[in-house]
Amino acid sequence: MNNTATNYQILSEPPLAIGKSIFFTVTTDLTYDQRMIRICSSLVQAGFKVTLVGRKIKNSIPLNEQSFKQKRINCLFEKGKLFYAEYNIRLFFFLLFKKMDCIGAIDLDTILPCYFISRIKKIKRVYDAHELFCEMKEIATRPAIYKMWKKIERFTVPKFPAGYTVNQLIAAEFKKMYGVDYEVIRNIAVLRQLPEVEKKEKFILYQGAVNEGRSFETLIPAMKEVDCKLVICGDGNFMQQAQLLVKENNLQQKVIFKGKITPEELRTITSQAYIGVTLFENKGLSNYYSLANRFFDYLHAGIPQLCVDYPVYKEINEQQPVAALVNDVSPVNLAFQLNNLLHNEVVYSKLQQNCISVRETLNWQAEENKLFQFYNNLFVTK
Question: Which CATH number fits domain 203-358: 3.40.50.1110, 3.10.20.30, 3.40.50.2000, 3.20.20.140?
């Protein structure tokens, strides 16, 4: 493969507001949060002091050393309302005794303690909205849960005038709902040297959260008619249902669950895959307006993917096709489309070459300039 990519390095001028201390808060296990590892690493290299705060769960592995500080908070509960209540209380008291210049809430599930801490400490606050949280299927389809999170959103988001999200459609929704003007900083992968990989066996890869709304109900049955294996790397709230679907369809030898994989291991598996999948049900604006990390991870690995034909993916694909886009996510159509990518060498080769070309311009080294500019403006503005 022709490949001119260089190793990861900062390609932009660092911000003027260096030396400022930023705390970011998430509910994820930090080991696997590629997006936040990417953001925090860039800001540290640009001269900021960064701490990422997440949670520790029973099967958490030791944290890898990073250029930024990391803190895991232990909780008695691991899911549901009790987890969110406990975590937010523990997070508040942890942050209360830390010195910082800015607090960044990553998605809605940590926004309340960040808001109160920013008011108490009289510091900058930022909302990093990875998605339309209340419009995720697991929230939007549960009226009581939706009402609770929507109340939190209405209370807090207007009080976070500084923020950013992953695409213009989501930014426009926040503007329409709450009058905030959020920047767009996309979840694009870091440009790394593309390794020469001998693909001994063709397999399809799904990487990311195994959550509701990701079309596993149709993807897994589709595999009965697809001529290779499906490897699923990740965990989430739909894992038990996904495993049950595999058993019901007698696909135990064809659908392989790898569980959570570290970013380094995941890059190796992705480079060996033949096809990636980025599928979402069209239920809730969060899915319809999504821009998933995995879309760029597949692209940067030089592998074509089967992807939903939703607005943001369609816009990228129209510039130079890197994916086969589908509106119909039924098992019959998914099987047909996956088999076409497996066996149509002309289509596959064209998409593959486009991936290798597009990654040279669509990469984190270019996108991070927007991140630097955002935080520079935040700190120099009174």
Answer: 3.40.50.2000
